[in-house]
Automatic annotation (TrEMBL):
E.C. code: 3.5.1.89
UniProt protein name: N-acetylglucosaminylphosphatidylinositol deacetylase
Organism: Erpornis zantholeuca
Gene Ontology CC: one annotated term: membrane
GO molecular function, one term: N-acetylglucosaminylphosphatidylinositol deacetylase activity
GO aspect biological process, one term: GPI anchor biosynthetic process
Length: 177
């Protein structure tokens, strides 16, 4: 629930507001508040527990596309890395066969230089191998920024820089898992 600084309720509301900006109805937002999955950048979550919860959610919502972090978690956040490990475990170790038409894409982590060169990374991303490349229009980029700004409790100075310079608000390269 994002309760690292005892702001779980605030962050839930910010998430719903952010999803609304993106056109995602509140009924499609699921917040997992599990005592064994604390919001803590230093805690690695239990892979099997998280894999079970993710699979249950995919089946319950008939999800046809899962987008997750790669092994680097984009920012190195332990919870993001754990989510990748759980999805990978679900697909590779449990031999989970996604429902017909369900695909799993992994968001590629890039080095610090590429991460903060904004739209200039489009040129580099187009030249490198990947399974999918999403390039946002100017309107979509502004919508993404409005959605990020809904997370007021998390808008620390470095996230303000992220809003200005991050390539992830313009271009995202992904690989099939």
């Amino acid at each position: 629930s994002g309760n690292y600084y005892n702001q779980g309720e605030i962050r839930k509301k910010e998430l719903e507001q952010s999803c609304w900006v993106l056109g995602i109805p509140a009924s499609d937002v699921t917040v997992i508040d599990h005592r064994d999955l604390p919001d803590d950048p230093a805690v690695e979550w239990d892979t099997q527990l998280l894999a079970t919860l993710v699979l249950e959610h995919i089946k319950a919502k008939s999800i046809n596309l899962v987008v997750t972090f790669d092994a680097g978690g984009v920012s190195g956040h332990a919870n993001h890395v754990s989510l990748h490990a759980a999805v990978r475990y679900s697909v590779c170790t449990l031999l989970w066969v996604p429902p017909r038409g369900c695909h799993v894409l992994v968001l590629e982590s890039v080095n610090l230089f590429r991460k903060y060169i904004s739209f200039l990374d489009v040129l580099i991303s187009c030249l490198l191998p990947r399974d999918a490349l999403f390039i946002l229009t100017e309107e979509e980029t502004e919508q993404a920024k409005r959605a990020m700004r809904c997370h007021r409790s998390q808008l620390l100075w470095f996230r303000q820089l992220y809003l200005l310079f991050s390539r992830y608000l313009v271009v995202n390269s992904l690989r099939l898992l």
